[in-house]
Amino acid sequence: MNKKVMRNGIVAATAASALAAALLATTAEATPASTPTDGAKPTVVLVHGGFADASASWNDVIRRLQKDGYPVVAPANPLRGLPTDAPYLASVLKSVKGPIILAGHSYGGAVITNAAAGNPNVKALVYIAAFVPDKGEQVGGLLEKFPGSKIPDAIDPVPFPNPDGSTGTDLYLKADKFRGAFAGDLPVSVTNVMQAAQRPFSASSLTDVTKDAAWHDIPSWGLVAASDNAIPPALQHFEYKRANARGTAEVSGASHSVMISHPGAVTKIIERADRGTR
Question: What is the pLDDT of residues 204-221, one digit of tens each?
């Protein structure tokens, strides 16, 4: 090959390589590594609380999230107390690939607070009319901070046998108290079914001590149910402010079962949390 042609070819190739490198550097600078570029959305994990189950609690929220392109997992919360429920949920979270937006309702808020600790995939915590305990706190203690809960007067305790032979206590809501305490903004035809199918939770859940408070390290959002007769709205405001929530919303007239009566508002704050962590 002619030496002049070869020399010109090498110069051209070098210039092309330099140009490509410059373009790549510009692209990398314009698109931070932490920003998703493939349009993939995080998995939303929804955790229910006491007196409820995953389907009755989250069905309409799940439909909305899926319509908006979010993968969703709504596991069954065992409701056997934090020492059981938090490790169980932590194991579920470890099975989910990629980033997670973790939402909890009511007692489910205490569960996600403990279970998310140390999991780098959990990008946001979303509290829906929920308990948000700090380390060393008990759900029952939080409930006593502000007046207004109708839960204590609605409780129907039922003993059950533990595997070790001791006796535990399951907490149900009485049939004539269920709607007023838990779901006052839903039709009686709906709350009658909810009451009949309610899942009790162990009374130990009220006194179990929170070991880890993930909201110290993971950004949080909170939704207040303004007419909540289970967890007083004043307590919800207190908790979300203490957790330095990046965003809050209040749903006027909403009962404790806000995810059923106002699924659009719940979906909105979950998606707001996703946008806030991208």
Answer: 999 999 999 999 999 999
pLDDT single digits (tens) 25-41: 333 333 333 333 356 99
Domains of the chain: 43-276 (3.40.50.1820)
pLDDT in tens, 114-142: 999 999 999 999 999 999 999 999 999 99
Q: How far apart are CA 58 and CA 55, in angstroms?
A: 5
Q: Cα dihedral angle (141, 145, 148, 149), rounded to 10 degrees?
A: -10
pTM score, whole prediction = 0.86
* Contact residues for 9 (Cβ-Cβ < 8 A; gap 6+): none
Q: Look up residue 243 and give its two tokens.
A: 């957790």
CA end-to-end span of the chain: 54
Burial tier of 73 (Cβ tally within 10 Å: 0-12, 13-18, 19+): middle
Residue 67: which residues within 8 A CB-CB, separation 6 or more?
none
| C-alpha span between 154 and 174 (Å, rounded) | 6
Q: Determine the length of the chain.
A: 278
